[in-house]
Amino acid sequence: MTIIGIAGGTGSGKTTVVRKIMEDLAEGQVALIPQDSYYNRKPEDVPFEIFRQSNFDHPDAFDWELLGRHIRTLREGRAIEQPVYSMLTCDREASTIRVEPADVIIIEGIMALYKKELRDMMDLKIFVDADSDERLIRVIERDVVERGRTARIVIDRYLHTLKPMHQEFIEPTKAYADLIIPQGGENKCAIRLMRRYIRQLLTEKQE
Asked: What distances in angstroms separate CA 49 from CA 45, 61, 67, 140, one per listed residue?
């Protein structure tokens, strides 16, 4: 089993990079573990309107214990029940997604490289880099269309939360990356190198 961590700021192009990796692998050969699925549950005694104002770009927003346990379980060859998190309700849904062990496990999220425990389980650590202006534009496009927010709300959140959290917690994890991909999924040269390296890792593990 090959475990790959893919980190990068919000709007950096991580999803595109993940898609291009999965396109290069056979069906059933890869399992995706989105870090967004592992946000903490909303406390029952906290009203939704209050909880939705929480800082979801801080390390404390994630259930690291559950994420680590699930990766260890997959590495041991056993399936997991991955949480389903709703960004609209800011809470986990009752349903889960069954994820079976696969040749390649991808952990994708803004802080995928933040915890040493997770990094130590990874065979390849990738940081997807992008200009801050480009990331802001992508965040505006996504949040306005998918989450019903106004551009003004998104920009204020970026300036007061996303940008400082990125500088404090996400950008420093670039130092742990084996491969940095500038321009996200648009960097065709880096994508080719990444695919070649993953195939090499898989070949070595099968020998």
From this structure: 12, 16, 26, 21
Q: Could you read off the pLDDT of 144-197 as tens digits, one per residue?
A: 656 667 767 777 777 778 788 888 999 999 999 998 888 776 788 888 888 888
* pTM of the shown model: 0.84
Give dist(CA 148, CA 142) in Å, integer: 9
- Cβ neighbours of residue 123 under 8 Å, at least 6 residues apart? 2, 3, 4, 201
Q: Is the dihedral of CA 195, 197, 201, 204 positive or negative?
A: positive
3-state secondary structure (DSSP) of residue 135: helix
Helix (H) or strand (E) holding 136, with range, is helix 132-146
Helices (H), 38-94: 48-51, 64-75
How far, in Å, CA of 169 to CA of 180, rounded? 17
Please compute, for residue 143, the number of CA atoms within 13 A of its CA located in the half-sphere on the CB side: 19
